[in-house]
Amino acid sequence: MILPAKVMSELVEPFVVRGRLTGEKYKVHFSHLWVGMTTRHADTIDCKFLVNGRSVVIGLAHLGFVEFKQRAGRSLTDAEAAAVAAAFLREFLAGDHTLPSQPLPVSREELLRLAEQLGLLARNQ
After folding, report:
1. Which of 10, 63, 67, 85 could form a disulfide with 58 if both were Cys (CB 3.0 to 4.6 A apart)?
2. CATH number assigned to the domain comprising residue 38
3. 107, pLDDT greater than 60
4. What is the C-alpha separation between 57 and 33, in angstroms, rounded?
């Protein structure tokens, strides 16, 4: 569910993920998003999360936004982009990966898969 937010950090409700193999518990809080071109010279929209207090950045490929708009006939909103990044991070952490020190890239294809999974984009579009 996409939440109405008064401030950017409220776009994604805090959540907890457990690693499937280790059972490690991750407390996740969304912080904010920004255009990656500005800070990292990357063609992404970056979403920052705090995972157990540590910064984790998810870089959503800009081409995924372009294709989403072509297929859906509308732009992906900030709240929807944050939800897609949260879904990616949830899957990543459940897979027992270690917390990265570099931004995690989300490809165009992965962004569209997650948008479909969240019901933001119909499979036939």
Report:
1. 85
2. 3.30.160
3. yes
4. 9
Q: What single-letter DSSP state applies at residue 42?
A: -
Q: What letter does residue 120 receive in the DSSP assignment? A: S
Residue 124 lies in a domain: no
- Res 123: pLDDT: 73
Q: What is the pTM of this model?
A: 0.90
Phi, psi of 63 (to 5 degrees): -60, -30
In Å, what is the CA distance from 47 to each residue of 33, 50, 123?
4, 10, 25
**Mean per-residue pLDDT for 14-34?**
93
The answer to the question of residue 15 being in a domain is no
Q: Is the pLDDT of residue 125 over 60?
A: no
Q: Which of 122, 73, 83 is nearest to 106 (CA)?
A: 83
Q: Which two tokens stand for residue 33?
A: 């998003």
Token couple for 5? 């937010």
**Mean pLDDT (whole number) for 53-81:** 96
